[in-house]
Amino acid sequence: MNWKATLAFAFAIQATAATAYAGDGAALSTAREVAKEGLLAYDAARYDEAVEKLSKAYAVVHVPTLALAVARALEKTGKWVAASEIYLEATRIPHEKGWSEKQDEAKREAESEREGLLARIPRLIVASTGIDLSKLTVSIDGVNIPRALLDSEQLVDPGERHIQGAFGSQIAKTAVLVKAADHARAVLHFTETADKPISSSVAAPSEDSSGRSAGEGSRSDAQEATSISPQRIAGWVTVSVGGAGLALGGITGLLAMSKRSKLLSSGNCENDVSCTEGQADAVDSYNSLRTVSSIGFIAGGVLAVTGVTLLLTAPKQEKKAAVGLWVGPRAAGIYGGF
After folding, report:
1. Model-level pTM?
2. 81-86 LR contacts (CB < 8 Å, sep 24+)
3. Is 182 a residue whose pLDDT tops 90?
């Protein structure tokens, strides 16, 4: 795109701006000048600058010629996927009355260039070991892939792509270098999880007189020994929330005291509420802090007392502490209850 093409392009923008944008003339003039700067940056191979300026102009003047220019600049920066979407957008801009032939020509060029670009955009398929892919949260270059599309080839920009998968606390990462028209594959490696135990070679346990295996009986005892009543759980939660309320009341109370001290020392206040008009905002802030502090202390105190009452009245556990080893036909582990 040379300087003559740049001027022709700018003229095409000017000729259709009135129908593409209903704002004031100053905004249109500014957008036109920014578009010219973007086109000149494109001619000088400053493609990042071209993307920035042309995108700003396109946001104001929504015409195919500008959309085409933005897409071409994006393609030059290596953002092929984004470019393909802007090419498509250019073809879908409704025809406006008063458009020049240049706009219709831009739509045709956008459609043709998009077809050529789609054939070159790399595709990347993500796979996993150890955990089913559908259970993972997967991202490419920090952008999450919708779960419904995890088993599909992802359109990606050329270059090194960074893939991450997460399942609970497990994180797996890998990187793949993709080139134009590649059909690449990235594999995330996980270990088998607790809901699918690794096979054990330990011999099956013997059964006791009740017919239960030793491991099964011990594990059941451990589960009973470590059970906690719902009332105790509710008590600890309520105490925690109450403590947070008291902490909030204390902090805001200290802030209110500091605010009051500043008001009185300023010489503009005789007491907490009798101040000059210039101190109205400061007085409002002081009153708000006092209110929050009072609410924090009252609510926090009530919740803390309620939580302590729940804990004191909760039924006591009768089971004794139990620690031991359990062994099953497919897994083994340590149990304990205190």
Report:
1. 0.54
2. 81/121, 81/155, 81/156, 81/157, 83/117, 84/114, 84/117, 84/118, 84/121, 84/155
3. yes
